[in-house]
Design a protein that fits this description.
By secondary structure, the protein is of the alpha/beta class. Helix content is 25%, strand content 25%. The strands form two sheets. The protein has a six-stranded parallel β-sheet. A five-stranded mixed β-barrel has the order 3-4-5-7-6. The chain is globular and about 55 Å long. It starts with 9 loop residues before the first strand and ends in a 6-residue tail after the last helix.
Length: 277
């Protein structure tokens, strides 16, 4: 089915800012790109980068956001930066919002070129910019929908299909848990010391079906969520419902974050009843 529906529950992943800091370019950009593709394949709608080991989140955020931007908008949105010099070597996401010029879709990402009263001239990747009704105060990047031949602004949260991810930064794992959990959030941590996921498959299926949001926490290749929580002097069990090993009997000594995201979200995607109905 293409484009795929927006996932229910909403899928959020949280990764540590210290990930990829041990890599040099161009490997660093390529590993972040693999993370972006893993998140996109399994319809993650938000990627949270929480600060860990005093490493700023900006370098990862910059690459993830550049990859998420449709190709035709990169000339507006992607600045020249040392963090992005190898972006062209990264595999494209080709998510539903990454439309080619001749592809038909009722939705498109755009960049406001100029305003005319309550309307705007917007580049949405077609042969020519379009005129669209866009509320004041928005932009420069906007999402448009076409209704009866006319383009107008739409909140991307209202789009019924999966439309890619957004990226946010948090100052700590604790702040992530405090700001992104509600009674309807199912919080899962990944760990090689966790419970093998196959032993909880039936239970997880039920929990996922009743949740509004699925928040999955990842540590680093050499530091788990429990260790990071200890560093921050918090008890993660106040927030986390399950700590899972999603690669039992792993054949490598360590699993990189982008590999953990791919493995974990693949299994959770299978357990999500939306994908089996």
């Amino acid at each position: 089915m293409w484009p795929p529906p927006k996932p229910k529950p909403k899928r959020i992943i949280a990764i540590a800012s210290s990930n990829f800091s041990n890599l040099k370019e161009p490997a660093r950009t390529l590993h972040i790109a693999l993370l972006a593709r893993a998140a996109t394949i399994f319809r993650v709608e938000q990627i949270i980068i929480y600060k860990e080991s005093n490493t700023p989140c900006t370098p990862i955020k910059t690459v993830l956001e550049a990859l998420e931007a449709p190709q035709y908008l990169r000339k507006y949105l992607v600045p020249k930066s040392r963090h992005l010099r190898y972006l062209g070597a990264a595999p494209p996401l080709r998510s539903p919002s990454h439309l080619l010029r001749d592809e038909q879709s009722p939705y498109r990402e755009g960049y406001i070129l100029r305003r005319i009263g309550d309307k705007a001239i917007v580049d949405i990747g077609l042969e020519k910019p379009v005129q669209a009704k866009v509320p004041p105060g928005l932009g420069p990047r906007v999402t448009l929908t076409q209704i009866q031949g006319h383009w107008q602004y739409i909140d991307r949260e209202q789009i019924p299909v999966y439309w890619g991810y957004t990226v946010t930064c948090q100052q700590s794992l604790k702040q992530t848990l405090q700001n992104h959990t509600t009674p309807k959030t199912l919080v899962i941590a990944t760990s090689r010391k966790g419970t093998p996921i196959n032993t909880l498959a039936t239970q997880l299926k039920t929990k996922i079906a009743t949740a509004e949001t699925l928040l999955v926490l990842f540590g680093t290749h050499n530091k788990g969520i429990q260790e990071i929580a200890t560093q921050e002097n918090i008890n993660p069990q106040h927030y986390i419902h399950y700590t899972l090993n999603t690669a039992p009997l792993q054949g490598t000594k360590t699993i990189r974050t982008e590999e953990a995201v791919l493995t974990t979200m693949a299994i959770l995607n299978l357990l999500d009843q939306q994908t089996t109905t």
